[in-house]
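User: quick one
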Amino acid sequence: MSERKSVLVTGGSRGIGAAISRLAARRGWRVAVNYHVNSQAADEMVAEIAAAGGEAFAIQGDASSETDIVFMFAEIDRRFGRLDALVNNAGVVDRKARLDQMDAGRIERMLRINVLGPMLCAREAVKRMSPVHGGHGGSIVNVSSVAALLGSAGEYVDYAGAKGAIESFTRGLAREVAMEGIRVNCVRPGTIDTEIHASGGQPDRAARVAPLIPMQRPGTAEEVAEAVLYLLSDAASYSTGAILDVTGGR
Ligand code: NAP
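Assistant: Done. Structure below.
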């Protein structure tokens, strides 16, 4: 078994996840870069990490599908032989809408990707990290959103509710496995300049909300990645169940 620690970053190929994959590799982690549909972005991330002397592989999978999740973790077992950390980063928004305009299919999709998937990934991680299952501890970081606090009225209350669930889940799981050497924390980004806004039909969103942010600018994916890597690292050894705001003061 390699001495080098390994991490799975869901949605690790673009946006915030790409910044996390890149920084994790730079800090010495071996990285499993999960993606859903855009294999080119994932391959480019893996090539970039390899060119810088790091170790990574791309792994396709829908991070809201139990079958795909179980496959991904088995693949990490095969490729890395150990799993020390999980970053539940993959997440989606939908079009701006009021609740009375949403159908069940949309709400279910929001909950599957933003809540069910992270919970199932954390389950698979705990099965590998907990001494109850023969593991040696580890670290999990969930990516929430300031939407969990603000509620996103008139925009996407379904997404905001899903992120609120992830924060409660973080606190609960942290306490459940605290004595098993597993830390579970959460990063709560504010508005970050990535393609997620365009995917929700609002490509100008980051610039538009900037005046509402005390720092008067959107954050960068790299600024979120720094917070995630801190919580993953031993430097955060006494933090579990914590939620770290990266919001520019919002
Ligand atoms: P992004 O730029 O849209 O990137 C999304 C990433 O997630 C891509 O790598 C994508 O892979 C992957 N992905 C999407 N659905 C997936 C699925 N079902 N299974 C596996 N991978 C999937 O998003 P982002 O802005 O970096 O957001 C990352 C996280 O930060 C999300 O949890 C989001 O809610 C949260 N967040 C973002 C902001 C913001 O302002 N950007 C603010 C607060 C919180 P493919 O390319 O293959 O589709």
